[in-house]
Every structure is written in structure tokens, then in C-alpha cells.
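#struct-help
A.M.: can someone run this one for me? Single chain, 176 residues.
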Amino acid sequence: MNQGELVVLKLEAAQRQLDAAIRMFFMDEDKLAILTVVAAATTVLRDITKKSRGRDSFEDGVADGFRGYARDIARGTLAAATEEELRRDQALWDCLVSLAERVSAIGVDASMEQLRQLCPIRFPDDGWKKDLHQGLTKIPNFLKHADNDPTGWINEKDASQALSANLAYPLVTYNH
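D.P.: on it. C-alpha cells below:
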């Protein structure tokens, strides 16, 4: 690296991709483009955390996401649009509310590390992970592997469904 050269770390690149995808989503940009950017960032984050932690970062990331939602519910700071999306899956919403009660008992300002220790999350099986991953990567893989089937096509509705909050969220529980 030369002096004065600007560098971008992989983690920063993934963060910038996610930030762009969020802006694209709220600007009602093309769903195929949003999914491609999200999938790229997810791949980078998955690879970084898997290498550093030596365990399943995808499951850890989903669990931390649930803990984050629960903390926002407990604080009363969950965005209305996010709440509306999460409430579409009643079982998921009920689980998050229950987890939020646990977070409230621990303290809404607890760190994520404290929440990991005091609010462990168990997933029922690995099937949900495969379904969710396939939902997230279906369209980016379709575009990525164009050389395999240059005349292939995909249903536009698949992009909308893949962006939906109802992507096969697992039913999660926490240990009391």
C-alpha cells in the first residue's frame, strides 16, 4: 500500500453495500438490484465472521438480528415500518415480544455480548436456514450464473417475495 492511498476494508465494503441497499429499498429502486447488493454484502460478512469465529455466522447473525429487534421493541424504538413487516408473521412477532420482555428484565442498554450470554436463542432445525439462504440467493445466483443458461429467465414476483419479511423466518425460542 502506498502512502496516501485510500483503502477499503472488507468489513467496510460490506457495510457500504448494506447502506446502499437500504437506501435503494426506501427509494423503491429495482428489487433485483437490491437483492444482488444484499447478497454480496451477506457473503462478505458471512465469510469474515465464519473465519474469525470458526462457527456458523449465518445462524449467529440471524440470532443477533432477533436480539436487536427485541431490544428495539423493549426500548420502544422499533421503526413502525419494521414492526409492520415483522407482525406479518404472528409466531415470529410473539417470539420477539417474549424475547423483548427478557431484554427488559436484563436492561435495555445491555450490550449485544451480554444479550448473547443471557438470551441464548435455539433454532428448531437446519431446514429454515437452507430455505432462508435459498430465498436470499436465488436471484443473485440466477444473475451470477448467466453463463450456464444465457437464455434463462426468472419470475419478477420472485424478487418481491425474496425481499418480503416473510422469507421463512424460523420460529425461535430463548432459554429462560
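A.M.: thanks! The helical segments are 10-26, 31-53, 57-75, 80-86, 90-106, 112-118, 127-144, 156-163.
D.P.: also worth noting: Confidence is low (pLDDT under 50) at residues 164-176.
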